[in-house]
Write a structure and sequence with these properties.
The chain is an alpha/beta fold. It is built from 13 helices and 21 strands. The chain has helices spanning about 50-60, 80-90, 135, 140-145, 175-180, 190-205, 220-235, 245-265, 280-285, 315-330, 375-390, 400-405, 410-415; strands at about 1-5, 20-25, 25-30, 30-35, 70-75, 95-100, 115-120, 125-130, 150, 165-170, 170-175, 210, 285-290, 295-305, 335-340, 345, 345-350, 355-360, 360-365, 395-400, 415.
């Protein structure tokens, strides 16, 4: 049950060819198998709110413990604490697995969701698709290996898992913030097209890109430039720059990459008209519901200007972008519904960042009214949408989620849905 850490995998995972797997939908079916990581900081002084948020989430999962299986990744010295924690909440030992991972073994990445896309092979076996190898090292492959998953041969995709929302294997929504990472300044015009082509070659299906911002905005131009610089660095060095043993070697790599980057800008290959959504992963603002009432798959798109949401220039700008997202998805045949999505004190309160299970129908909905009293009415409205409009009889309100929102995520970000055949 407890498996201690170690960076080396026990055996090389079997490779699944493109075209012989199906992407895992975001709505679990029958039983929900989830991986989550609890880092050392959660147990540290001054982190009581973050600990409470994890406790609230685990408590909510325990309410449906016959349907929920957990893989918890935690520091080795905390595995006994986590075991006692889960046992106190009523989880049986055959419903959870603990894996030890030392902080610093890989580039720190709190959310397993972002380093791995999951799929199911033609033979039903679980499949791991590593997505951020050049940024965080082999963390995604390590998790997949520890769970006995097959893999898709890939080390060059730069897709944040939080930008990926799978309605079904034909309808894969991808936030354009990840497309920005796939785009190199040296590409010829229609760079989005080139990025989509590359993803299709490596994954075997073409995503539906959503979300944009005007790159003319200086803040976002800088962020996109840094993303492109990383692409040059990766292409130049061939591996994660963080793995370089010498500080001077890392500096040299950065200088060479910056030279190539500056040269591409000087030759006017920057394409300032390109848009991308960098201020949030797609799963913070869009929800897959698993519902279809005859007008296409139902998705929720957040509305920062809905009744009760605080007003601000940022909320206004977000609202325009999310209306564009909603209109685009409607045009692609989705049944788009809107829900309140407040932008409050610099944080997106991620009501859309949740876990949905079908058969039985269960939703774990993040709420913020216990942290911000003004959000209680918005808690109620989001609950009503899932319970009445979308007809989910069981909707668990998970309180205290502001601590997650302050870390740029919420329940969906904090968890990684695993294929049903994954052995726990």
């Amino acid at each position: 049950m407890n498996e201690m850490c170690g960076r080396d995998l026990k055996a090389e995972a079997e490779v699944v060819p493109v075209g012989h797997f199906a992407l895992l939908p975001d709505t679990g079916h029958g039983a929900t198998k989830l991986a989550l990581r609890i880092v050392e900081d959660v147990f540290g002084p001054g982190q009581e709110k973050l600990y409470e948020a994890f406790d609230n989430l685990l408590t909510a999962f325990a309410l449906e413990k016959e349907h929920v299986y957990l893989v918890v990744i935690a520091p080795p010295r905390r595995l006994n604490d986590v075991h006692a924690w889960l046992t106190r909440l009523g989880f049986e030992s055959d419903h959870f697995k603990l894996i030890g991972l030392r902080n610093g073994d890989f580039t720190d990445q709190d959310w397993p969701r972002d380093v791995l896309l999951c799929a199911t092979a033609d033979d039903g076996a679980p499949v791991a698709i590593e997505t951020l190898h050049e940024r965080v090292g082999n963390l995604g492959g390590w998790i997949g290996g520890k769970l006995g998953m097959k893999k898709v041969q890939n080390k060059t995709l730069l897709i944040d898992g939080g930008d990926s929302l799978v309605v079904d294997d034909r309808n894969w929504i991808l936030g354009t913030g990840s497309l920005a990472q796939m785009v190199d300044y040296d590409q010829r015009p229609q760079m989005w097209q080139a990025a989509l082509d590359e993803i299709e070659r490596k994954i075997g299906r073409r995503p539906i890109p959503v979300g944009s911002f005007p790159v003319g905005n200086l803040l976002y131009r800088e962020r996109l430039a840094l993303a492109r610089l990383q692409v040059h660095r990766t292409a130049r060095t061939g591996f994660n720059i963080a793995a370089r043993s010498s500080l001077w070697a890392r500096v040299q790599d950065h200088l060479v990459a910056f030279y190539e980057f500056a040269k591409s800008v000087a030759t006017k290959r920057s394409h300032d008209d390109i848009d991308a959504m960098d201020w949030a992963h797609a799963d913070v603002v869009v929800s897959v519901t698993g519902r279809n009432f005859g007008n296409g798959p139902v998705v929720l798109v957040g509305d920062p200007k809905a009744d009760g949401c605080p007003g601000s220039d940022t909320a206004d700008a977000m609202a325009k972008i999310l209306k564009k997202v909603a209109d685009d998805l409607t045009g692609r045949g989705f049944d788009v519904r809107r829900n309140p999505l407040p932008f409050c004190d610099g944080n997106i309160l991620g009501y859309n960042n949740l876990i949905v299970q079908t058969d039985p129908d269960i939703v774990w909905l993040p709420t913020f009214g216990s942290d911000i009293a003004a959000m209680q009415a918005i808690d109620d409205e989001n609950y009503r949408i899932w319970n009445q409009d979308l007809r989910f009889p069981t909707v668990h309100r998970v309180e205290g989620m502001l601590a997650f929102a302050e870390n740029s995520g919420c329940i969906h970000c904090a968890t990684l849905a695993l294929p049903p055949s994954t052995q726990i």
